[in-house]
Every structure is written in structure tokens, then in C-alpha cells.
Amino acid sequence: MASSWRPGCPVPLEDLRLLTLDHWGFDGGVHRGELVVHRNQVDQVLRVMRQLHDARFPIERMQLVDAYGGDDERSMAANNTSAFNCRAVSGRPGAWSQHAYGWAVDINPVQNPYVSGRRVSPAAGAAFANRSARHPGMVHAGVVQAFASVGWGWGGNWGSPKDYQHFSATGR
User: Fold this and answer.
1) pTM higher than 0.90, yes or no?
2) Residue 54, phi then psi, degrees to nearest 5
3) What is the DSSP string of the chain?
4) How far apart are the C-alpha atoms of 49 and 58, rounded to whole Å?
5) Could you list the pLDDT tens digit for every one of the 172 residues in the chain?
């Protein structure tokens, strides 16, 4: 995790765990992916990912954010489902993201973009900002319920901005 974790991150490296998970791809096949989460969230994330797998919920890719040099924008543009990333909250330098603690997971960022006013991130997510349609990989009630079953909150329930890809142990 040389690209994302570094000295000064708010969680020590020994508190993070690498999960290797099977998931359904957009091609209908089973793929193996990786997420890094805080050691205290391993059971919760495993339970949710098992529910998503059992429901055949498609995930385009699941790579460590290190594959993108720790760059959240590049990871989102690649429609990468990810978890740990030692970074600040978007637009708030100095405030650690829940991802920096290993307490958050982003699911299919293109189909589930971050929407703040007219800004949609990643840019390819603009086609999915209208949540009334249902496309493969879009977060729906079943995904939200899977995370809620382990006490995690969804960024799609926030007033503004809406972070449709984001789930976290703290609800932030």
C-alpha cells in the first residue's frame, strides 16, 4: 500500500486488513478483487460483500487505490470499487476522509457518482445522476439495506452533496 498509506495517516498500518473477495462483474462472470479496511470493520464488510455477491450485484472492478497511485479521481474514473485511501475529505484539506481510517467503501463510482450542485464526479457519472432510472451497478434499496444491516450509512441519504457510491461505518 505504498501509494496510499504513508506515515502521518490517521490509522496505523497494522490496523488495516487486506480482503480478497469474489464479486460479479459487469460481464456476468465472477472476478476476484481486493479491498483494504480497518481491522474492526472486517466482519461487517465481509458480510455485506457476501450479500452483494449472493444477490449477483455487479461490480465493475475492485482494485486497491494504489493501482491508481492513491489518486481518488483516477480510481473513480476507472469505476473502481475501493475502500482505504489515506486522503482528505473532498474539498476540505486537513479533514480526514472516512476512507483514511478504513471505515468506508465506494461502490461503482460511475454508476453512483458524487453530486454537488451541478458538479458530478466522476464526469462519466453524469449519465447516472438521475436516480429514477435503474442500471446495472447502480446502488438500490437492496445494497443500502445490506450496508444498513451492519450499521453502515449511505451518502445517498445526505441532503447535499449526494455521494451515491459512499458507505461508511460512521454514516459520514
Assistant:
1) yes
2) -60, -35
3) -TTT--TT-SS-GGGEEEEEEEEE-TTSSEEEEEEEEEGGGHHHHHHHHHHHHHTT-B-SB---GGGGTT-HHHHHHTTB-B-----EETTEEEEEPGGGGT-EEE--TTTS-EEETTEEESGGGGGG--TTS--TT---HHHHHHHHTTT-EEGGGSSSSEETTEEESS--
4) 11
5) 457 999 999 999 999 999 999 999 999 999 999 999 999 999 999 999 999 999 999 999 999 999 999 999 999 999 999 999 999 887 788 889 999 999 999 999 999 999 999 999 999 999 999 999 899 999 999 999 999 999 999 999 999 999 999 999 999 9
